[in-house]
Design goal:
The structure is a single chain. This protein is an alpha/beta fold and 475 residues long. It contains 18 helices and 7 strands. Strand 1, helix 7 and strand 2 form a beta-alpha-beta unit. Helix 4 packs across helix 5, helix 12 runs parallel beside helix 17 and helix 14 packs antiparallel against helix 15.
Length: 475
């Protein structure tokens, strides 16, 4: 990601579609044995609606759109996944939203957003089949009251919900936005064209204010870390902020999402009559005090939540126990040990031994399904962990600690190849002084990817730390 400075604010967010997208494996075709497409009828209808919207946007913004855009919609309307993907990849290079892309005004306009939504929705069905993309999208849609504002995070969280709603443009049953490109004025032009006369959409001044607020805060934290090197660092891991020729430059996903978080807050503060619901892309710190588990996603409350009640935790526990039972079988209980979870992962995912597996083979062999649902469960575990470690009243800490552990065990069992599931759980285990369990989780994940440098480095770190503890405890 290239460094950014104040004049290039609107160019920073496009790369987030790569950084935070739930990357899905491409498939050569998406057709049944009889040659017909396997995409559900509502997806083809959605494509037609987005093509109509693209034409209206081109007219409203006086855009001479590239002919390849209309060729893309033609292929998508025919369910021709290989052709539409090839066209999309060529257009990406001209969108100015991705690393290495350039700015072609015939592509890099609000019209481009319609293609992103069509492509991400089709990609979910192309790689994930029908059952689990529908379960994901419809599960979220059915949980959100009409008239609410929903923020998608991952590619499926944006694309599938957008595609499976009754009407994205008309906000039926709710308004659908996404967190990652909010700092791009072209994306805001796009959502303003749909919703601007019904809800508040940030202006160019709002974007500038968010950038100014973030850089001012980052500069203070950077100065603190330089002036007081022996105190805890205030800059976040992965946050790249530096002064070049007297000007502050920021880059990297953490910095960009910090700016996006301020824009989300602007939308939240202005639209006081709407309920808010969030599918997490990247943890946005200001949200945590306001969040409640809500099925697959979160509810963002108008006021901070004093404490997570027993009823709230029970409901979340029951919901995810049922989800995991249908996918993995009825074996993962609150008392199930880390070693038994790792034994399950090695048997089912590594050795492909399903002789005792009572879950859905169609789940554990589906990369889309495992990654997507593990991501959702990791997010709720992250909320529990934040409650444990923040200054907010954690309520029953023993129960909350147990639910954090349970959520992370479920997330790991759902997708042991997920870096988020592994690293979040290992971080929690370390915080609880359970180093042996952290090593066991890392070793098991490493069996799925023995050449993964991040896992190798993590295992080396954990082993070194355990050796230091052993030496310190020796007489």
């Amino acid at each position: 990601m290239k460094p950014i400075s104040r004049p290039t604010l609107v160019s920073i967010s496009g790369v987030l579609n790569i950084v935070f997208a739930l990357l899905l494996p491409a498939v050569p075709v998406c057709r049944a044995a009889d040659g017909t497409n396997r995409f559900p009828s509502q997806l083809l209808a959605f494509c037609a609606a987005k093509e109509q919207q693209a034409h209206r946007l081109a007219a409203d913004f006086n855009i001479q759109a590239s002919p390849e855009i209309w060729a893309y919609f033609k292929s998508a309307g025919q369910g021709d996944w290989p052709e539409m993907t090839n066209t999309y990849e060529r257009l990406k290079l001209r969108s100015s939203q991705y690393e290495g892309s350039w700015n072609d005004p015939a592509v890099s306009s609000p019209v481009w957003q319609t293609l992103i939504e069509v492509q991400t929705a089709y990609a979910a069905f192309a790689s994930g089949g029908t059952k689990y993309p529908l379960a994901f999208g419809e599960g979220i849609i059915q949980s959100i009251p009409a008239g609410s504002i929903y923020f998608g995070g991952t590619d499926p969280g944006r694309g599938l919900v957008t595609a499976l709603c009754e009407s994205h443009v008309e906000a039926r049953p709710f308004y659908t936005l996404t967190q990652n490109p909010l700092a791009d004025s072209r994306y805001l032009d796009y959502v303003r064209s749909m919703y601007g006369n019904r809800i508040y959409i940030p202006t160019t001044n709002d974007l500038q204010n968010a950038f100014t607020e973030y850089t001012a805060d980052a500069q203070l934290r950077l100065k603190h870390d330089r002036d007081f090197p022996n105190e805890p660092r205030q800059m976040k891991p992965g946050e790249v902020v530096r002064v070049v020729d007297g000007r502050l430059q920021v880059s990297g996903a953490v910095a960009v999402m910090s700016i996006n978080a301020l824009i989300v807050k602007c939308i939240f503060d202005h639209n006081t009559n709407c309920g808010f619901y969030v599918e997490e892309s990247f943890p946005l710190d200001w949200m945590y005090p306001y969040l409640l588990p809500h099925g697959l996603i979160f509810k963002l409350n108008r006021e901070p939540v004093p404490v997570l009640t027993t009823q709230t935790i029970d409901a979340d526990h029951t919901f995810w126990a049922k989800q995991c039972q249908s996918m993995l079988g009825d074996w993962l209980k609150p008392e199930t040990s880390v070693s038994n979870v790792c034994a399950f992962v090695e048997s089912v995912y590594v050795q492909k031994d399903w002789s005792h597996f009572t879950g859905d083979p169609g789940f554990v062999t589906n990369d889309f399904a495992t990654k997507t649902f593990s991501k959702l469960r990791s997010s709720s575990g992250g909320l529990y962990q934040w409650r444990l470690t923040s200054k907010t009243d954690a309520g029953d800490k023993a129960r909350l600690r147990a639910e954090t552990d349970y959520a992370f065990r479920q997330a790991f069992a759902l997708c042991p190849t997920s870096p988020e599931a592994v690293f979040r759980y290992v971080n929690f285990l370390q915080s609880q002084n359970r180093l042996n369990d952290a090593i066991l989780i890392t070793r098991t994940a490493r069996k799925m990817g023995p050449d993964n440098e991040q896992l190798n480095d993590l295992l080396s770190h954990l082993m070194g730390f355990r050796e230091q503890q052993r030496k310190a405890a020796a007489p």
